[in-house]
Specification:
The complex is a heterodimer of chains A (about 325) and B (about 425).
Chain A lengths: L1 H31 L10 H30 L4 H7 L1 H23 L5 H28 L7 H30 L8 H26 L1 H4 L2 H20 L7 H25 L3 E3 L3 E2 H4 L3 H29 L1
Antiparallel strand pairs in A: 1-2
Chain B lengths: L2 H39 L3 H35 L1 H10 L2 H21 L8 H6 L1 H23 L5 E2 L5 E2 L3 H5 L4 H31 L6 H39 L1 H7 L11 E3 L3 E3 L2 H7 L22 H27 L1 H5 L6 H28 L3 E3 L3 E2 H4 L4 H7 L1 H23 L4
Antiparallel strand pairs in B: 1-2, 3-4, 5-6
Helix pairs in contact in B: 1-2, 1-6, 1-8, 1-14, 1-17, 2-3, 2-4, 2-17, 4-6, 6-8, 8-9, 8-14, 9-10, 9-12, 12-14
Amino acid sequence: MNEYVAITLVIVPLFLYAVLLMIECGATVFVAVPELLGAGGGGEKMAAVYIAPLWETTNVFLVFAFVSLMAFFPGAVSIWGRALAVPFFVFLAVMGVRAIAMLLVFYRKGAGRFAKALLVCAALASPAVFAAGIVPYFLTAGAPYGGGPLLAFCLGGFALAATFLVSFSFFGYLAARRAVRTTHSMDFLTTFFALVFILVVILLFLMMPVLVPHIAGGAAFHASSSFFAGLSVLELVLLVPSRRDRKDKGRRFALSVALFAAAFFGIAFAQLPYLVYPAVTVMGAFTDPATAHAMFLVFGAGALVTLPSLGILYYLFA
Amino acid sequence: MDIVAFGRAFLGITMAFHIFFALFGVGIPLLVSLAELIGIVRKDGDFTRMAQRWTFAMAAFFVAGAISGTVLAVVFAVLLPPFMAIVSRVVILPFYIETFAFFIEAIFLGIYAYTWDRFKGKWTHWLASLPIVVASCASAFFITTVNAWMSAPQGFSTDAGGAITGVDQWAAMWNAAVPTRTGHSILSYYATTAFVFAALAAFRFVRKGWKDKNASHRRHYEKMLVFSIIAAFVFSLAVVATGDDSARYIAQHEPEKFAAAEDVVRTGSDEPFVFGGPVAVPGALSFLVGGSEATVVEGLNAFDPATWPPLGIHYLFDVMIAIGVLMLAVPAAFLIFRFVPRLRAKHGAFSKAMSWPIVITGAASVVAVEAGWMFTEIGRQPYTINGFLLTQNAFTNSHAAIAYAVAFPVFYAALAIATITVVAGYYRRNEIV
């Protein structure tokens, strides 16, 4: 039981990180290419005001998930530490380039086109590189599935489509809340990327029995497929003829996140009990009971302080 | 170059960069908070402006520190998997606690930096600085406990096959080296940050002299210099005191390192304190270690040469001591010039003759921190975990990992250049109004 609580404490922060990172990546693109959101209409400023106080906190979610994985599942550290050396370096290099470009674009007046282009490329690449470079290892390490590059391509496309959907729906909602006029119809863009995302996920799910059979056979995967289908119908039928009020856009954002969550958690939980398939299970890699209790104790105490603080932060700026 | 030699050099470079960012990430919040507090209590707009201006540097160095820290953590995981496998089993608790401190620091940094005009009461905004101060100190504390554990590993045992058993994370975290190691390093970050700020203010007087035409600028930098140098002096006193404790701890628990640091070749009493090479004070080392000249100090001859650390750490130790003396003498001289009325009348404290040593000490204080960490890490060799894991067994055998790792010193250099460019550019564009 403790193993499953622990893996949830890894997966949930990772999910939160993914959502926040996708919103931020969208925001950085909007800041670098203000025409997308509304040059002169306050869209660029809105994205910049959102991202500036929050992006540092977003990175902590990744650190938290990373440390939680090491803390609760030390038995797997040396395995994925060795195998993922190169993908991790590539991901960190992309994140580092993004951070440097952000420093230059956000905090230095008159940033050149090169810095902005670098920012856009790095922002769009970071979720895709994570999904394509790191996730496949956990899903298929050592498994005789074949199709490695295809799986990486599919997961990278999934992350990219989710980035556009989540960020457009979020900034559509934020623009409505703050009465900011946008150049393009955010409803149209959100709907368009919702369609793209649904299509990508349908393709990914259809290919799962070939690419990652053990996931496709999991009960969690079937449940999430059904849930995803239901949400997709809701997205397509109920919200396409969108009203233009604020609450509607809020629902639209929530639905976009729910679509992503259905796919994300479906794959993540269908992977269990494997941490790294087929070499490591969560039970095999789990830490000793005394350490686990110490970690749970620290998590409880830490959450008591951190969650209200996060609440204040997002209340003030999001 | 073999993998281990390359790995050591690589980790040395990454650590050196990370410490540069991290020390300011720990030090600046305290100075910002104190400056804003003084501004509120004394209703002094100069101090409030000081806090506002320093907030930008605080945010930039936090970002850079967070990036370099994350990279460092992953670098450890991919380059030293055997080491990280042990750490994650035995002493992961401080890392886990540190992530919560990291959360609090990031959250309140966002709140503090972007709400200067948002709250009605000034105290409300100042209160937002306190979690940053506490969390940045806590972050440094918990990370340093892991480093201390590498020197004083405890909280676990091994079975006949060498497998780790009986793990007690709390015992590992509160290891014997924690009090001296954490206290000395955190206080040195505060002292160094204060010195660097003092050096920046003093550099203004070097460039423009005391008779700066702009009176508001002059007043601002005067206050900045006095405030920073008082803080630097107080923290330097604490650094020297904890440094003494730390040296005594090393003499007792890591005698090979101490012998190499103090250049003690043969075990004996009445050992002289040797500085550099030519300066030697008879009996002083024995006295410093045990309070008496009769105290026996173990020399290198008492240990197997295979366990000796590189003997060059003696010079790193001397660099720390020399700069430590400078960090006490220079602010003491400044305070005498500033507060003794006759000398003050001649503006002695803000003269170029006084400002140059402050500028030099500011730069030297950063060197001292770097030397301190190099001393700690090199002094622990040939072990990564003292007495338990040899460095040659801690490294990966993946040549691919090593090949890609070459890119990271380049990345760190780019990060350093970008951070300094952005911070310097910001202050150039935003002069004091």
